[in-house]
């Protein structure tokens, strides 16, 4: 699906790299890892995590070490389309044989992999889908729902477990294709204000984490209406009811959201916005 030139582009990019680690968008500081861990599933099983488009970032490895320290049982696979970058990571991290619960692999997110279906609790994406969105814009299409993006989102949906989540770290406050993708039941946006930005950023001021909960009703690769325009805005604490102007935070009376509680709050909030009678 994705042409060989793209693959070659990234291989050349990593071949010419002099550093052995580099971060786009945001640095995997302890603050970021803590922020991410607030969105971990609450079950007691091993947490299976896939990173897509890992580049030569250390995010997945650092998150794995962080979880180990917290005694959280996790299995992490960090992937990228570029074999050069995967080889660089493998050399850099020199993983001992006991570290078989963390590995680097090549994976093209634009291709289907039935062997990965329903495998992951979390799919982490720091700048991968961004590159597809950027390319679609560069080609003058500027289509948030470009076919390639839909293919990638369908694959992500297939690889998530029924209650899995897709975490997108991006400078985009609004990520329309993510927000409107029917394969996600809810998309919750968290602004990451205090976390240092990566070295490879444009003039972006902020970084956002979009937490996307899988919609189990959606059938990837068959649904003709993968995107629904006019889907509710991404919900965050500042989202406000169009009628009574109460914010989502006020609606919850400041109550924190954790674990399973999140989807309940989001459902209640959508219900409120739909039925609110106040002017
Ligand atoms: C903007 S970089 C982000 C790298 C890294 N996640 C970081 O935060 O530093 C995008 C990455 O996506 C990878 N990529 C591009 N197309 C891909 C595809 N079809 N499948 C998997 N990875 C891809 C590139 O090789 C590149 O490493
Ligand atoms: Zn209201």
UniProtKB/TrEMBL annotation:
Residues 50-165 form the Methyltransferase type domain. The keyword Zinc-finger does not apply. This is Methyltransferase type 12 domain-containing protein. InterPro entries: Lys/N-term_MeTrsfase_sf, Methyltransf_12, SAM-dependent_MTases_sf. Pfam families: Methyltransf_12. Keywords: Methyltransferase, Transferase. SUPFAM superfamilies: S-adenosyl-L-methionine-dependent methyltransferases (SSF53335). GO terms for molecular function: methyltransferase activity. Belongs to the methyltransferase superfamily. It comes from the Eukaryota. The keyword Transferase applies. GO terms for biological process: methylation.
């Amino acid at each position: 699906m994705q042409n060989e030139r793209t693959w070659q582009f990234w291989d050349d990019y990593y071949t010419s790299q002099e550093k052995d680690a580099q971060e786009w968008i945001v640095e995997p500081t302890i603050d970021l890892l803590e922020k991410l861990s607030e969105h971990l599933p609450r079950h007691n099983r091993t947490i299976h995590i896939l990173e897509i488009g890992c580049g030569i970032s250390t995010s997945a490895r650092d998150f794995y070490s962080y979880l180990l320290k917290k005694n959280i049982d996790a299995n992490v696979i960090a992937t990228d389309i570029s074999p050069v970058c995967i080889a660089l990571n493998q050399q850099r991290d020199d993983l001992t044989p006991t570290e078989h619960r963390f590995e680097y692999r090549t994976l093209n997110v634009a291709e289907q992999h039935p062997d990965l279906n329903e495998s992951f609790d979390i799919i982490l994406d720091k700048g991968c889908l961004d590159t597809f969105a950027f390319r679609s814009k560069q080609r003058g299409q500027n289509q948030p729902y470009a076919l390639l993006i839909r293919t990638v989102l369908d694959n992500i949906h297939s690889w998530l477990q029924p209650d899995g989540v897709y975490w997108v770290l991006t400078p985009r406050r609004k990520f329309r294709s993510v927000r409107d993708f029917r394969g996600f039941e809810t998309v919750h946006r968290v602004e990451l204000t205090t976390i240092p930005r990566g070295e490879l950023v444009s003039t972006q001021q902020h970084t956002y984490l979009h937490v996307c909960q899988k919609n189990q009703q959606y059938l990837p690769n068959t649904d003709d209406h993968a995107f629904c325009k006019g889907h509710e805005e991404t919900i965050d604490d500042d989202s406000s009811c169009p009628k009574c102007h109460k914010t989502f935070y006020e609606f919850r009376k400041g109550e924190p959201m954790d674990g399973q509680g999140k989807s309940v709050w989001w459902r209640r909030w959508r219900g409120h916005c739909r039925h609110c009678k106040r002017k």
